[in-house]
Specification:
DHBP synthase, 4-stranded parallel β-sheet, 10 helices, Rossmann fold, binds magnesium ion, binds threonylcarbamoyladenylate, 11-stranded mixed β-sheet, 15 strands, alpha/beta
């Protein structure tokens, strides 16, 4: 398959963005696969109403088809067609607060959404992204767009154009809008049972969610894999990745990381340390190899760089790496959720 690469600067006006996207949106509507930017990660989109296109998504990603897809909209009026008549009242209150933005709601689906989109479930995950390019694309295509993250299954979600190279030849279009602003996939909240339940932590922190939804159920380990996709090893490099847990004495974290690197070195293994600005000088004075993910005082930066850093381990040729942990509050909870999946054994 020949992949067309289209660069669309997200700072252009809505009209200019729409002009650039015209052909691509036509193709998306008519059954082609399009990689597009959202504020969270790049998505791999297809017309959610065309059953045979959805199969192509699973093929392109090499993803098990029991793992349901999120349906993206760009206009509240599109909801009528995709959700059942029986959605709880709280849904309308919550979308008022969180949309457009990085929150997905799982709710009962309408009959128009093919079973293959939802992995046979009678619920559907819906999201209204805030990124101007995704909004323009979905509006022009004028259909709901099913889209998982645009990575080969198991790899970290793509957050930079360079990460999309692996999808060339697998999709019809790639829309390149540069580095993605948030860098972590959306928060997923299920409204399918009586009490709202957090299925996947995301860019909107649990603390913020609790202010709006005080009775939100949080299974802090997310062990039960309520979102089917959470049960797989994910976000993982080919390399062996070790985690050193956070504690409030960063010197002791850095010294444990260094000891791990030294032990690997004794076995003739060079490892890469994924560290933070606060600890980099500790490793540089010891001559260890490291890559900083950003400062602990701005976890949004760490989030934005996380998947790139994990991918960099393999790209830089390392077979082993060590990552520093974070305190599991605020965005740190989401960052650690992804890191724990990346260090799961193969
Ligand atoms: O930020 C995001 O959510 C990105 C961008 C592209 O929108 N999308 C994304 O999609 O992360 P994906 O397919 O990589 O992850 C979607 C997760 C999966 O873990 C899936 O199991 C879960 O959402 N999910 C989707 N529909 C569901 C449903 N009806 N019930 C439970 N979990 C669902
Ligand atoms: Mg994914």
């Amino acid at each position: 398959m020949d992949t067309k690469w289209l660069v669309v600067n997200d700072e252009l006006s809505t009209l200019q963005i729409s002009e650039k996207l015209y052909q691509c949106a036509e193709d998306l509507k008519n059954g082609k696969l399009v990689i597009f930017p959202t504020e969270t990660v790049y998505g791999l989109g297809a017309n959610a109403l065309m059953e045979n296109c959805i199969n192509k998504i699973y093929e392109a990603k090499g993803r098990p088809s029991d793992n349901p897809l999120i349906v993206h909209i760009a206009d509240i009026n599109q909801l009528d067609y995709v959700i059942s008549d029986n959605v709880p009242d709280i849904f309308w209150e919550l979308i008022d607060v969180f949309w457009p933005g990085p929150v997905t709601f799982v709710i009962p689906k309408s009959k128009h959404i093919p079973d293959i989109v939802t992995g046979g479930k009678n619920t559907v995950g819906i999201r209204f992204p805030s990124h101007p390019v995704s909004q323009a694309l979905i509006k022009l295509a004028s259909v709901p767009v099913a889209a998982p993250s645009a990575n080969i299954s198991g790899k970290p979600s793509p957050t930079r154009p360079l990460h999309l190279k692996e999808m060339e030849g697998r999709v019809d279009w790639i829309i390149d809008s540069g580095t993605i602003p948030l860098g972590l996939e959306s928060t997923i909240i299920s409204l399918a049972s009586d009490v709202p339940t957090l299925l996947r932590p995301g860019p909107i922190t649990v603390e913020k969610l609790k202010e709006i939804i005080p009775d939100l159920i949080i299974n802090s380990n997310f062990k039960e894999a309520m979102a089917p996709g959470m049960k797989y090893r994910h976000y993982a490099p080919e390399a062996d990745l070790y985690l050193v847990e956070w504690n409030d004495d960063l010197n002791s974290v850095a010294s444990e990381v260094s000891e791990t690197a030294d032990k690997l070195f004794e076995k003739n293994i060079n490892s890469l340390i994924l560290c933070t600005d606060e600890t980099r000088s500790y490793y540089s004075t010891k001559g260890l190899e490291f890559l900083s993910m950003g400062s602990r005082t701005n976890l949004y930066d760490v989030a934005k760089n996380l998947f790139h850093s994990i991918r960099a381990i393999d790209d830089m040729g390392y077979t082993h790496a060590i990552v520093e942990g974070f305190e599991e509050t605020g965005l740190g909870l989401t960052i650690m959720n992804r890191i724990r999946k990346a260090v799961m054994k193969k």
